[in-house]
Amino acid sequence: MKQQLEAIRKAALDAISDAGKAEDLEALRVRYLGKKGELTAVLKQMGKLSAEERPVIGQLANDVRAKLEANIEEKTKELADKAMELKLKSEAVDVTIPGKQEKIGVKHPMYQVLDEIKDIFVGMGFEILEDREVELAEYNFTKLNVEEDHPAREWSDTFYFTEDSSILLRTQTSPMQIHAMETRELPIRILAPGRVYRKDEVDATHSPMFHQIEGMAIDKGITMADLKGTLNEVVRQLYGEHTVTRFRPHHFPFTEPSCEMDIQCHKCHGAGCPTCKGEGWIEVLGAGMIHPKVLEGCGIDSTVYSGWAFGMGLERLALGHFKISDLRLIFENDVRFLEQF
Ligand code: PHE
């Protein structure tokens, strides 16, 4: 029996020391120390021993049991410690790793310019209006005093939705003048930016979709001097104190008199350079005093009220502002381009 016990001790201790998981140890405990375990089986035969042998073998059996229990406990703790160490290692945060940089976009350069212009006009008491891009020809042309056979109405120039040429994509923001006059109380001061559409081929200076900003003021006693004063103040705030403007006579069906405003080239100061195509001046907008026929058509008494309106191209302004050479860059939304502003 002594040999049996020694054999069990040796085998059990080896198995315990080789165990890799807590479950293995539990299985070994059952196998050796359990009610039907190997050690228990040996002890059951103690009755066969002589009175002298019994206490010796009993002592040995107790020692073996104690040793196995102690080793199982020790090994259990060892495995638990190892597991904890692994867990801590895997969950460790390396605070020295550089952080991940988030990519944040920027406002489109053209809308940066638009925001600046809106701010300037809001500062002068104007209200910002944004409205439909699909218009009735009546608002885009007729109510703006554009004659039935005016070339701008041609199918070759305008995107129409209907055979009878009654519904279209607005070709200018000027219909906003009519909407404002029809729906607002006088006096009116509005700024209406938005997209407009014309059948133009895409090139460095043309796009079938572009942006205009319409401005309009109507009150008693408004004159051309108010128009010039307002626009000069806007240009001064946008381009600086010493920016020079000039107003040239022009024709628009819905204003009388009409003009175009140029600003002196910010690059060459009028001498002529590639930016202004040698002109010394850059055309920025069309404007004029609202035609009495247009006022009357909207129910406004043109003998009491008068007003001015202007329309400017936003892309052209943004190109000049950021010294961008090609209009297409504005619309392509290439991040490498947009990131530069
Ligand atoms: N709508 C005109 C254009 O597209 C510009 C304009 C607006 C002219 C308001 C006079 C008054 O060319």
CATH hierarchy class name of the largest domain? Alpha Beta
Looking at the structure, what is the overall shape?
Answer: rod-shaped
Separation, N- and C-terminal Cα atoms: 92 Å
Radius of gyration: 45 Å
Helix and strand succession? HHHHHEEHEHEEHEEEHEHHH
Let me know the CATH homologous superfamily of the largest domain. Bira Bifunctional Protein, Domain 2
Give a list of the ligands. phenylalanine
Total of domains: 2
Q: What do the pLDDT scores average to?
A: 92
Count up the helices. 12
Please indicate the percent range of residues in DSSP E strands (runs of 2 or more). 15-25%
Task: State the major sheet.
Answer: 7 strands, mixed
Care to count the β-strands? 9
Helix content: 40-55%
Instruction: Fill in the CATH topology of the largest domain.
Output: BirA Bifunctional Protein, domain 2
CATH architecture of the largest domain: 2-Layer Sandwich
Structural class: alpha+beta
Numbering strands along the chain, what is their spatial order in the largest sheet? 1-4-5-9-8-7-6
